[in-house]
Write the C-alpha cells for this entry.
Amino acid sequence: MKFTEAEENYIKSIYHLQITHEKVSATLLSAAVNTRAASVTDMLKKLQLKKLVNYKPYQSFTLTDKGVKTALEIIRKHRLWEFFLVSKLGFNWDEVHDIAEELEHISSKELITRLDNYLGNPSFDPHGDPIPDKNGRIKQLKQKNLIETPLKKMATVSSIRDQSNEMLELLKHYNISIGTRLRINKRFEFDGSVEIKMEKVPAAILSEQVAKNIFCTI
Amino acid sequence: MKFTEAEENYIKSIYHLQITHEKVSATLLSAAVNTRAASVTDMLKKLQLKKLVNYKPYQSFTLTDKGVKTALEIIRKHRLWEFFLVSKLGFNWDEVHDIAEELEHISSKELITRLDNYLGNPSFDPHGDPIPDKNGRIKQLKQKNLIETPLKKMATVSSIRDQSNEMLELLKHYNISIGTRLRINKRFEFDGSVEIKMEKVPAAILSEQVAKNIFCTI
DNA sequence: AATAATTTTTAGATTTGTCTAAATATTTAG
DNA sequence: CTAAATATTTAGACAAATCTAAAAATTATT
Ligand SMILES: [Mn+2]
Ligand SMILES: [Mn+2]
Ligand SMILES: [Mn+2]
Ligand SMILES: [Mn+2]
C-alpha cells in the first residue's frame, strides 16, 4: 500500500514516540510532526480508516501491526540513506538527517533492496541506530549510557539518543562519534557529571544531561 | 527559490516540449504531465506569477530565462540519479526513469554536488542524454540518427530519442545500447528501413520509425 | 463534588492541485 | 466569410493537509 508523505511522517513519529513514551497523545505528536493538535486529530481519523492506528476519540493511540510494519519500512529507508550519505558521499553525521527525511519517501522497493546490498547490508546507521532488515527485524545491542557504564572499563560509543543539532555539535567539539573508545574515570555525586578519558586527549568532563544520551557497548 | 513537485514537473515538461516542438500548447503539455488542459491553464497562471513562464491567455507559451535555469537544475538531478542507479546500483537503463522521476525532487544542493563528484562528473546519462553541469551548461554531441548516418562507416550509438518502455524493450532485444558500435549496410527506399551490422551478430533490419530514434556519433 | 485548567475535537477557512462541464476564443473548411 | 471543429479558459467541486477559534471532554485542584 502507498501512503502520502504526510501520512508516512505521522506514522514514523508515532512509532518513535510510543517507544519512548508510555502514552502517545495528540499534543505530543503535534510537536513531533510540527503541526497543531487539531491537525493531528484530522490525520488520526485518516490513519484509522487505513487501519494504521488504533484510535478512539479523546484517548491516547497506538500503531496497529500494519502501522508498525509501515513505520519500520520508512525507518529502514531513512537509515539506509543516512548510511549512504555518510559512507559514500562523505557527509558528516550531523548533516544527513534532513536529507534522509526527504529520501525516505522515495517509493521504489527495488531501489532499497539494491541500495542495501550496495552498502553491504549495514546493521546500524551513522548515529548508531539499528537499520531494520527487509523483514523489519532490528539488531539490538546491549548498550548502557555513560551514567550506567562501569568505571575504569574501556567502552565503545554505539549510539546517541538525543540527535538534535545542539547535541551533535557538542559531540563534534569533543571529537566523540560512533566507534569512539573511552573509559569512565570518575562520576561526581554532586551534579551527576562524569569524567571520561579518550586516547591521545586529556580527560574531559561531561554533564549528566550529556552522559545520559551517549550509549556504549563494553 | 523552492518549487512544489507539481510545479517542477510542469517546468521540466515545458522545457522538453519547447525543444522538440515549435509551439507548446496547453493540450500538448497536458498529455506530457498526464492531466487535463484545464489543469494546465491553472498551473500556467501560477508559474507566470512566479516568473517562470511567458504566458498570455489563448496563446502558446515559453519558459522565461528563470524557467529554463530551473528546468536545467531538475534535469541535472534526474540524469545524475539515473547515472547513479545504473552505474552504482546495477539497474538496467530501462528501469531507472520512474525512480529518477521521484529522486529529481530532492531539494538538497549539497547532495547533488557530492553525488556529481562521487559519480566522476559524468557528461551523459544512461540514455545518452547530456547532464547539465552546475552552471546549467550542456555538452552537445555532433550526432546523426540512423537515417542520416552515412553508409558503410562505423558509428557509435550515442543517444535514444523516444525512450518509451516499448522502444527500450525493442533495443534490448536487438542488444543495442549506448556505446554499441555498428555500420549501416543499406537503406531501403521502399519503406525507409535500414540494415545494420554489429560485431558478432548477423545483420538486422530496423524500421524507419526505429532508425529515426537512434542517434550515433562517427 | 464542584470548579478550574488542560487537552482534544469540531467548525469553518485556506492552499495546492486536480477534475468535469460549460462558456469562450481560435482555427479550419466549405 | 461564415460555420463547424478544435482548443482554451472559466466556473464550480473535491481531496489532502493545514490553520485558528470555539466547543466539548477529560483531568487536576481546591
Ligand atoms: Mn520525512
Ligand atoms: Mn539516524
Ligand atoms: Mn518528477
Ligand atoms: Mn535519461
Q: What stands out?
A: The domain at 144-217 of chain B is CATH 2.30.30.90 (SH3 type barrels.).
